[in-house]
Amino acid sequence: MNASAQPEESACGAAPGRAAWRQVWASRTARACLAVLAVFFLVALGAEIAHAWYAWRDVTPPWQAQDLAARYQAPGAAHWLGTDGLGRDVGLRLAQGARIAFQVGVVSSLIAIPIGVLLGCLGGYFGGKTDDVVTWLATTFASIPGLLFVLAIAMVVGKGLLGVFLAIGLTTWVSTCRLIRAETLRQKGRGYVRAAQALGFSHGRILFRHVLPNVVHVALVSFTLRFPAAIGTEVFLSFLGLGAQGQPSWGTMIASARLRLWQGMWWELAAVTAAIFAVVLAFNLLGDVLRDALDPRLRTAPE
Amino acid sequence: MWRYVARRLGQAIPTVIGVVLITFVLFNVVGGSPAALVLGQNAGARSLEEFDAARGYDKPLFCGHWTKTRALEAVDFATAGPGARAAWGAGATGGLRLEDGQELVLPLAFPLPADGRWRLTVEGRGPGFPQDGKKFSTVWKKVFHGVEKPAFRAAGGWAEIRRVRLEKGTRHFFDSQLADYARRVARLDFGTSTSLNQPVGRLLRAGFGPSLALTVPILVVELAVSLTLALLCAYRRGSWLDRSLVAVCVALMSVNYLVWIVFGQFVLAYKLGWFPVWGFESWRNLLLPILIGVATGLGTNVRFYRTILLEEMHKDYVRTAFAKGLGEGRVLFKHVLKNALGPVIVNVALALPFLYTGSLLLESFFGIPGLGYLSLNAIHSADVDVVRAVVLVGALLFTAANVLADIALAWVDPRVKLS
């Protein structure tokens, strides 16, 4: 039984994946985006290690060390991206902000994507009452104004990153769920599912061993689309003081840079803006290329 | 047609129930009473209890005859911390030991009001503990009713107390927070703002106008501009114009919302002096927020409309129109645009309810006293009733708009009714 299922799976799952990957890699835009994201990832990883190191040593990390003699320094040799109003290095704070942004993007996806994939698969595969419940949940969550919902969850959970993770994760699973449900419905009518049913496989096995690998590319595309949105929401929440507490995040940096802008200190805002722009742009462009490669029906580029 | 309308309205009922449930779970079950946040750290248990009673937070969440009270925190001596042990006068470890004839003194936070029903549950063991005929149990439980003397005395030997719990009676089994909430929603009574001391309904009505003054122009201008640009892209698809416009759109989408606002307010209003920086006195105050609002949504909208138009252009009737020898412009504007209006209508209809919440950040940055400004302030001051009302009304409007959009679509396109 197992052996008979194996070749079919590999024929359906791996080969199109490799072809899609080749298509993505062939695009110069995609390679540039991947390079930007690799830099972002490395910076976030380095910042994470530095953060853990200073937390373990229990000393003030350099991005928190105040140096009132070196306040408001424009970008220069000592501080590549200048210093802020308390003499802290903007570059190091920017790297810490990348760490938080990366965490938020990954953790909120780890909350939202499993919920969306599970509910979408169940609803699409079983149909009937199960589907009614899934659709009801999705419609209900989708009908609550997004940003307000996020703010309300963050308010109820309390200030801090946990509130940000939960707020973003619990509000954004709906789009993934809908895409997965539609894709599962389409896969359900295909021959391999009927063959598996005819072989007497259990629903769980068909769903998770056979259908899931064929719909998982939807989750991948939705991941690249949600990441920039999650970063934007984190910046928004941290800016309002509901997000990161006592550690530099891109949102809190914008909040402080905004006030210092009136004193002529432009570099902190410029650095944060450029960082967010680069990362979000890379994700948006990569998302388009990925979608074209993995899901030709949703093609956005002109022929 | 009427049957379709009725069916669609029927489908909206579970959604409304779901929205009411979600807001209840979010604010009452997860959030709990905002008493400590509103009254501050130093508020006494009595004023907290009165705050709860005035707002119904003292009732059980779903149903029940008994509910917890702030007069006495339930204690389990097996897990109690040193603070609670000291308050009860218990030793360092184990239960609270009472000698023969000694009375259990409840460390009440305030004297119990005479108008309530109270129930005291004491668990323990020992010869002095009332055994109620159960000779061989290791732990006995005794329940005392009545407010006059919720007390316990060891009689006929020592007694060891394990757990103590004081509860307040509810008026009836379904006298719960959920029932209260559902009743208030049905009456459209949204409670009172704790930070502004005004009925939430009045605050919502006051904020409605300024929000619409900001969001309606944004919607109209954005629709006009993005449809025009999308048509231009579709008309010249594949050309450098199309490609650069799409590139600009993706770039516009990637600039953070906050940056638009900060940049606009600082450079355009403060440095260049083209617009007023802050306030809500004349129409000139609205110009810059509208401009920023349009700029932030433009990228997404142009791409969306362009995709719709291009999808439409692959259909057979377009090929037929071209084959008839019609010009590009004529096909695009007379045939494609008309057929693409469906998704456009849906997109606009679904954007309508968001007009009401206004733009959170634009309003607070530019000092426009709308609902966005109201809700951000409410979130900062933990004003639960206001936040809940804004979320709830927003969701109900969204549901209504959804139903209306579907009905409008079915009216325009009869095929929809069949699906």
Textual characterization of the structure:
- The complex is a heterodimer of chains A (303) and B (419).
- By secondary structure, chain A is mainly alpha-helical.
- Chain A has 11 helices and no strands.
- Chain A has helices at residues 2-26, 28-57, 90-126, 128-142, 146-157, 161-171, 173-188, 191-198, 203-239, 250-261, 267-294.
- In chain A, helix 5 (146-157) runs antiparallel to helix 6 (161-171).
- Chain B is an alpha+beta fold and 419 residues long.
- Chain B contains 15 helices and 8 strands.
- Chain B is elongated and about 110 Å long.
- At the A-B interface, helix 4, helix 5, helix 9, helix 10 and helix 11 of A face helix 1, helix 7, helix 8, helix 9 and helix 11 of B.
Shape of chain B: elongated
What is the mean pLDDT of chain B? Answer: 81
Helices and strands of chain B: which structural class? Answer: alpha+beta
Helix-strand string of chain B = HHHEEHEEEEEEHHHHHHHHHHH
